[in-house]
Fold this protein.
Amino acid sequence: MEAAKQLQFTSPSFGMRLKSMLGVDFYRLFHTPLFYIFLVIAAIIPAMVFGSSGMDSTGAAVQLYTNTWQMVASQTPLYVVNDIGEYANMNMVFIFGGIMVSIFIGHDYRSGYVKQLFTTHAKKQDYMMSKTLTCAFAMACMCLTYLLGTVVSGLMMGASFEANMGSLLLAILGKMVMSLGWASLYTFLNVVFRRYFGISVALSFFFGTGILIIGAAAVLGNSPLLNLFLYGSSVNACLNSNGITLLTCIAVSAAWAVIYNLVGTLLLKKSDVY
């Protein structure tokens, strides 16, 4: 008589759970208008800024940018800005990206989807990491459409394209890498204030503008210590970037992603997620 085969039930591994969560989140991302709307917004921003004008010391109107790549990053790290021309570059993607993340994650709670999710199989750490990675991808894509919008606007305005292409590429990569850190911050904020959508949006906008770092820079000056923070490293990815700049962006972005995911997971485990 053959021995009866015993059925063994094993819990799915972390990798399998995360893959499943990412599949759901990316499906939602690609099948809702939200993602594409913000891609278009990112592409339009450069045209709007290029069409603006500043004033010189005599009060006469002048074009904000003469070089296209100033729309991507400042020439040097400028933590203290004097005018909109020094502030308006690819870092603006992270402001609008924060709003997108708030809407994307907020829908989980407003629709009741999160209740079903945590009731069935999902673990808190899987949720945090999946949202972070999905939103980081979305913001990195926004950086690309922003870059496309910058090139088109520069061509239309007849601006110069002169630059050190190596440093420019490192600056672009650095800012795209920072998408991970920013996404983790916004995911964390939306988990903490999950019942208060307006507060989540307001705080995401507040941190995205870098007001705290700009204020600290007004006291400390352009200190390298500011590069330890998300906005500081984003600013540090400038048109004079080198390999160290990119490595700093990678390290800072990854470190904050770990911190925000760990703390966010802990808070989710200790509170009523609904």
Summary: Residues 14-53+62-269 form one domain. The longest strand covers residues 53-55. The two ends are 53 Å apart (CA to CA).
